[in-house]
């Protein structure tokens, strides 16, 4: 209850409501026996949760978050419909709009890591697709989903209501915007790479006061390094650096030629180039760091302490070329916030 008290106090102060309003609101909650946020309180809570997300470099735009109150939709079909609406709204033909959709915290679960993500398949001792998705893909197949054994098969949405068995839904392909990866100079078409346009995280919980919304999928746009320096580059993901090095005819016989670093830079140039060419929102890690510096300045001007998680805020490529690398961050966890849910070891 005291997390709720603190939240409503913050809401009252930041939206300049009176003390009388606060006393009245707390009385209502006492009488009702539980805190059920108004839509206005929920919208505010979601925006502050983003502002408090210590691992997020993109927080400058926290005020412009679009918040959809979907607490009234409690059947799997209705939830699927709301998720499709979120995907279409957020994608916006490439001009991505940051949004969050909030479902009933007691009844709705979404089992996907992200609303749009590629399947992973273990075939013999090789893996096709995204290795990160192998276990979730098996879960989908067990529910009756047809595996296609491709490297870029979009997984179904898996929705669970109460204790019913989870249901899977195929996302209409016209809702899925993807970007083929090309390069301004080198022939990246040969690698047949593509990535989906919109990152939409669906396995984190939105905490507002003492309420935990376990189904509150949120999206922004990508920072290029997420795709170019991690999803395509990690040996435990698509492991493309050796292939890019070959395309660029780099000398890979010794590490000291820094062939991995050259391949990494060209792969990240290709990602930024491709998204921009297709008119899909994306930010490079230098611009993102500059925007974050503006966020830090704004927060100080508003008299708020900026909190952050240094290890996540530094980009995975050329981190020391950003200001973030050269200063410490206070990693205090404020409320409201987005929290990682413990993985269900099923
Ligand atoms: C608008 C563009 C945005 C950009 C460019 C951006 C960028 C990022 C990046 C690069 C990360 C680190 C991800 C990783 O390394 O895996 C991150 C983390 C995070 N972002 Fe943002 N973000 C944006 C919008 C948002 C929005 C709209 C929300 C929520 C409303 C949000 C909440 C978070 C959270 C909670 C994390 C930590 C995730 C975790 O703990 O696993 N971000 N962001
Ligand atoms: N640009 C984004 N990236 C992002 C944000 C939060 C979480 C994630 C996924 N993080 C997990 C991955 C997988 C291992 C390390 N990173 C990506 C956004 C996703 C949703 C809103 S912004």
Kindly describe this structure:
Helices cover 35% and strands 15% of the residues. It has 10 helices and 16 strands. The protein has helices at 2-14, 19-32, 39-51, 76-91, 134-142, 224-231, 241-247, 259-277, 285-301, 310-313; strands at residues 66-69, 99-102, 108-110, 120-123, 126-129, 157-161, 167-169, 178-180, 194-196, 200-201, 204-208, 211-213, 218-219, 222-223, 282-283, 337-340. The strands form 6 sheets. The chain has a 4-stranded mixed β-sheet, sandwiched between helices. The chain has a 3-stranded antiparallel β-sheet with strand order 3-6-7, with helices on one face. A 3-stranded antiparallel β-sheet has the order 12-11-16. Strand 6 and strand 7 (167-169) form a beta hairpin. Helix 6 (224-231) packs across helix 8 (259-277). The mean pLDDT is 98. Bound molecules: protoporphyrin IX containing FE and ligand H49.
